[in-house]
Recover the amino acids of this structure.
């Protein structure tokens, strides 16, 4: 008869095996990525000596020598060469060796420089992006948009929280996954975002948990409604999102600040950090947005 002690022991056994499998997979991938970097280096160093047909010859000879091995096509060997030329320095145990070859191809093919490549490598590792999601983030130019929104976090949040919040915001947000008419209304945008909540959460970034839409707030004898409410697991804070189907105007800042105060008083737990506000508009003038934020003492970004 199998007792509870055995079941508990077996759970630990399974965990040990899965951990070993994961480490083995990472080790195999690291070896493969290192091999491709070495191949690229050797090809780049000898192509000037033996000419442009070198890769075709290498591919043919390697396939004959290693008939069961993948990755020896001329196209992949060209990628190996580009891989080496992009990074130049040995790969070894660096983060680039922790992600699959297909992800690496996308990153060094689409990135403008090493800083951009490192950003996508780190985000891929941190968020476990599939190749499809990575391709989507590259296409939307996440690197250029990340942390670019106008905000007052440094003045309204503790330094550590401010730095993390700054890393999470984008300008502009990319809602290409929505199909809206040119003159859409705010409720249409809200419903479309909720309907595509998985893609919306991906665009917002890791750590966001969806709480609800048109969340009611009873204040005095009146009821108000927050367009979208999220909770951020890393920031340990609510995030209030106000949607506007028009260009930004200063009056919007006061309304968002009002909702932040209400959320802090009604929903925020004593262990939570201050609620953060996010305004999503069609367009904004940065100078007007900066002035609107000047005297706002709530953590807000536009």
């Amino acid at each position: 008869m199998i007792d509870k002690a055995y079941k508990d022991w077996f759970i630990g056994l399974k965990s040990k095996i899965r951990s070993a499998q994961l480490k083995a997979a990472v080790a195999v991938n690291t070896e493969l990525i290192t091999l491709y970097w070495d191949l690229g280096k050797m090809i780049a160093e000898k192509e000037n000596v033996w000419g442009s047909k070198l890769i075709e010859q290498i591919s043919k000879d390697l396939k004959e020598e290693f008939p069961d091995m993948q990755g020896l096509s001329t196209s992949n060997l060209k990628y190996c060469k580009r891989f080496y030329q992009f990074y130049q320095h040995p790969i070894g145990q660096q983060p680039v060796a922790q992600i699959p070859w297909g992800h690496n191809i996308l990153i060094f093919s689409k990135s403008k420089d090493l800083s951009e490549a490192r950003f996508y490598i780190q985000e891929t590792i941190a968020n476990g992006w599939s190749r499809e999601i990575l391709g989507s983030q590259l296409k939307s130019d996440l690197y250029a948009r990340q942390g670019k929104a106008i905000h007052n976090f440094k003045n309204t949040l503790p330094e550590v929280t401010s730095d993390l919040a700054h890393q999470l915001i984008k300008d502009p947000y990319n809602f290409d996954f929505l199909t809206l008419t040119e003159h859409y209304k705010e409720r249409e945008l809200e419903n479309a975002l909720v309907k595509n909540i998985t893609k919306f959460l991906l665009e917002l970034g890791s750590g966001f948990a969806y709480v609800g839409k048109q969340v009611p707030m009873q204040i005095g004898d009146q009821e108000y409604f927050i367009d979208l409410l999220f909770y951020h697991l890393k920031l340990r804070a609510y995030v209030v999102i106000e949607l506007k189907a028009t260009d930004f105007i200063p009056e919007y800042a006061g309304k968002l600040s009002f909702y932040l105060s209400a959320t802090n008083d009604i929903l925020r737990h004593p262990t939570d950090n201050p609620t953060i506000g996010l305004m999503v508009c069609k367009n904004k003038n940065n100078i007007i947005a900066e002035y609107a934020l000047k005297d706002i003492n709530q953590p807000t970004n536009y």
